[in-house]
């Protein structure tokens, strides 16, 4: 592990950092480490798999699917005049 010192943080920024750390119930150090990881690990975050909608997969009946498909047909119509 490495240590890092940050200097010249203005009062308003420090106040906001402190408020955010208190809101999340973590130390300022832990908050800054999380923010840095979030900022620099974007590539890794993009490959994260989400499973919050898994319970809905395959849950429609054939009738529900047909009804939904019919209702969104209008979104598949291309207005040629708009693309000139």
Which structural traits does this protein have?
84 residues, 2 domains, 51% helix, mainly alpha, elongated
Fold topology:
Blueprint: H1 11-24, H2 28-40, H3 42-46, H4 62-72
Helix pairs in contact: 1-2
Number of domains: 2
Counted beta strands? 0
Q: In whole angstroms, how far apart are the ends?
A: 58 Å
Give the helix/strand class: mainly alpha
Largest sheet: none
Q: What percent of the residues sit in helical stretches (DSSP H or I)?
A: 40-55%
Order of helices and strands: HHHH
Instruction: List low-pLDDT spans.
Output: none
What does the radius of gyration come to? 24 Å
**What is the overall shape?**
elongated
Q: Output the number of helix runs.
A: 4
Structural write-up:
- This protein is mostly helical.
- It has 2 domains: 11-46; 54-83, no CATH class.
- 51% of the residues lie in helices and 0% in strands.
- The chain has 4 helices and no strands.
- The chain has helices at residues 11-24, 28-40, 42-46, 62-72.
- Helix 1 crosses helix 2.
- The chain starts with 10 loop residues before the first helix and ends in a 12-residue tail after the last helix.
């Amino acid at each position: 592990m490495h240590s890092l010192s940050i200097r010249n943080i203005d009062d308003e920024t420090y106040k906001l950092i402190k408020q955010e750390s208190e809101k999340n119930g973590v130390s300022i150090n832990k908050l800054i480490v999380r923010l840095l990881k979030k900022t620099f690990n974007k590539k890794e975050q993009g490959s994260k798999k989400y499973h919050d909608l898994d319970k809905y997969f395959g849950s429609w009946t054939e009738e529900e699917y047909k009804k939904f498909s019919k209702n969104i047909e209008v979104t598949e119509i291309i207005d040629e005049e708009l693309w000139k």
